[in-house]
Amino acid sequence: MKQKTAVVILNWNGKGFLERFLPNVLLHSKSAEVIVADNCSQDDSVSFLKRNYPQVRLIQNSSNGGFAKGYNDALNGVEAEYFVLLNSDVEVGPDWIEPVIALMDSDSKIAAAQPKILSYSHRNRFEYAGAAGGFIDKFGYPFCRGRIFDSFENDHGQYDDTREVHWATGACLFVRADAYREAGGLDEDFFAHMEEIDLCWRLKNKGYKVMYCSDSTVFHVGAGTLAKNSPRKTFLNFRNNLILLCKNHAHRFFWVKLLLRMTMDGLAGLKFLVSGDADHFVAVLKAHKSFYSGFRNTLEKRRKLKLEVKVYSTSAIYDHSIVADYYFRGKHKFSELPADRFKK
């Protein structure tokens, strides 16, 4: 019999997180099957799980292809109506699953959703990865309610609502299994970072909705596998953001925006250099080199996706530059952004 919900934790050298957070997941996920998918860990995560949690289904991937391939490989062997992609460094509480599933059950067009994401170490502050739902500006830069770039809001109930967003975080991503498979899963070329934004954008272009549900709250440590200040993360974020834009943006003004984005990335790279962050400057250069080398492949993906698009979604896209508003106009909170600039 197919499970209603499968909670799948992708693990890579995360024994410490499993020790700390898996007991809570098991305690508060009685309505779901809990699965750990190991991405070829080199620590003793696997032996730890087999020894201490024999009741937890363990999937051992044959290679470490990052977040995207790791989940695709694991979910191929999971039968459920809903998948919950849960980071190993997330603390959950009672009733964290049921409100989101109830929301998704209420509308078959909801393909993905996320709960409220707060910081594990600063309990009343929104966390970087997802916060109160993800948005994107007209140049493809992602941001969240409760977190724009490195500015974080405290949670005082300002986002206690249920609403459509542009993307839901991969830290705790609820996704309808049929829609996940219809979209082809996560794009493995991303390896890690922004692959969930790409998936959500593709789902929205196919006519689905992506939602935020504040009736569920989880707490995320963040940067569990790759430090925030890592040049590797800078490389992945810059490269993957260009791929994201190239694959999913509507035809109108696409080439103009892509050229402007490349220029803006160049300015960001120079800022790294002037600030003495030479490693991050090099990471931006490598990101662009990687993007250019795979450009033909990305354009082919764009061509194929065009055949599946019902209508290019504009929902929850900020029709302005979040970079300009943040750095030059001093708008560091979501509430400070003009509401009429968000497309419906």
Q: What would you say about this model in short?
A:
The protein is of the alpha/beta class and 344 residues long.
Per-chain topology:
Blueprint: E1 3-11, H1 15-27, E2 33-38, H2 45-52, E3 57-60, H3 66-75, E4 80-87, E5 90-91, H4 98-105, E6 110-119, E7 134-137, E8 142-144, E9 147-148, E10 151-152, E11 162-164, E12 172-176, H5 177-182, H6 195-205, E13 209-220, H7 231-248, H8 254-274, H9 278-293, H10 295-306, E14 317-318, H11 322-327
Parallel strand pairs: 1-2, 1-4, 2-3, 6-13, 7-14
Antiparallel strand pairs: 4-12, 5-13, 6-12, 7-8, 9-10, 11-13
Distance between the termini: 39 Å
How helix-rich are the residues, as a percent range?
Answer: 25-40%
CATH architecture of the largest domain: Alpha-Beta Complex
**Domains, number:** 2
Which descriptor suits the 3D outline?
A: globular
Which regions are unreliable across 5 or more consecutive residues at pLDDT < 50? none
Provide structural commentary:
The protein has helices spanning 15-27, 45-52, 66-75, 98-105, 177-182, 195-205, 231-248, 254-274, 278-293, 295-306, 322-327, and strands spanning 3-11, 33-38, 57-60, 80-87, 90-91, 110-119, 134-137, 142-144, 147-148, 151-152, 162-164, 172-176, 209-220, 317-318. It is an alpha/beta fold and 344 residues long. Strands 1, 2, 3, 4, 5, 6, 11, 12 and 13 form a nine-stranded mixed beta sheet that branches. Strands 8-7-14 form a three-stranded mixed beta sheet, with no helix packed on it. A hairpin with a 4-residue loop joins β7 (134-137) and β8 (142-144). It is globular.
